Amino acid sequence: MRAWVLLSAVLWYLTGVGWQRNSERTEKGFIYGKPGHPVKLYVKLHHNSPILVCMDLKRTEKETVDPTYLWVGPNEKPLTGNNKINITKTGKLMVKDFLEPLSGLYTCTLSYKTVKAETQEEKVVKQRYDFMIFAYREPDYSYQMAVRFTTKSCVGKYNDLLFRLLKKILDNLISDLSCHIIEPSYKCHFVKVPKHGLIPELFIAFQVNPFAPGWKGKCNESVDCQDNTNHNILQARNRIEEFFQSQAYIFNHDFNKTLPAMHFVDHSFQIVRIDSCRPGFGKNEGLHSNCATCCVVCGPGTFSPDVDVTCQTCVSIQIYGATSCP
């Protein structure tokens, strides 16, 4: 039996009758340096970085004699090719499977020669390029929802029965998605309705959360399961929205029946997305305007211990992605 049919039947039984990013990027996806200006970019966790070029756009349009390239990483040590770092002979850098500790300042020094045609006199020229790279991840989504139901009275057991029944139906509706209903609550208010006087209504609020018990077991071998949980919570949102749309439809189109005393108030469904960041990450629109909606790794001097959306200050921290303050 469909969930909305079940709820409608129970409402009749209970009460009877009444009445819802980046910088110097080219078409090839390369990121070029900018002399005197650090280039800021963001790499999604467990993804490869874009290709960083140890040159600026103007330099690439000119001949460069005997170029050499020296890359230095966030630990201030020269970078060499390994399973994480790929450096080409032409000075292009890519970081593979980007993680929090790989965040920081990447510096490349380009050295090349200028040769005077008349005297063959050589001069070594050096140019430094800075790239600030930050790991980021998408926020974890949850949804705060609110609906209203009419009731016979603000006093009586029927209100609690409806509240518990509604939560049970919604939990069952989304349980296969590893989502569940948390922080449910309701209050009864008297609403002045045109041509109907004062009507008692239940104002019900709840949050749809993607981390029901056992959610990690359905990650399909994903590294951190975030793509799965965000996909599932979107499906859960759609199912619940469709459920309440069905409630409105049945009462608006079934003209042969009188409305039960307890029924869904049409157009009362409201929904707001709530973002949270995993520990070690946070949002900072001022500092990371090019990735304002991202959860960016907490930098040195900051940390995030829980699923808040901001990094807190801790001057003793010297790493990226800290989750506690010593």
From TrEMBL:
UniProt domain Zona-pellucida-binding protein 1/2 N-terminal: residue ranges: 38-137
Localization: Cytoplasmic vesicle, Secretory vesicle, Acrosome; Secreted
A Pfam short name: Sp38
Record's keyword terms, sorted: Cytoplasmic vesicle, Glycoprotein, Secreted, Signal
Ranges for domain Zona-pellucida-binding protein 1/2 C-terminal: 277-326
Residues of the signal peptide: 1-19
InterPro entries found in the cross-reference section: Ig-like_fold, Sp38-bd, ZPBP1/2_C, ZPBP1/2_N
Predominant cellular place of this UniProt entry's protein: cytoplasm
Lineage top rank: taxon: Eukaryota
GO cellular component assignments: acrosomal vesicle; cell body; extracellular region; membrane; zona pellucida receptor complex
PANTHER family reported in the protein's UniProt record: ZONA PELLUCIDA BINDING PROTEIN SP38 (PTHR15443), ZONA PELLUCIDA-BINDING PROTEIN 2 (PTHR15443:SF4)
Protein known as: Zona pellucida-binding protein 2 isoform X1
Native source species: Delphinapterus leucas
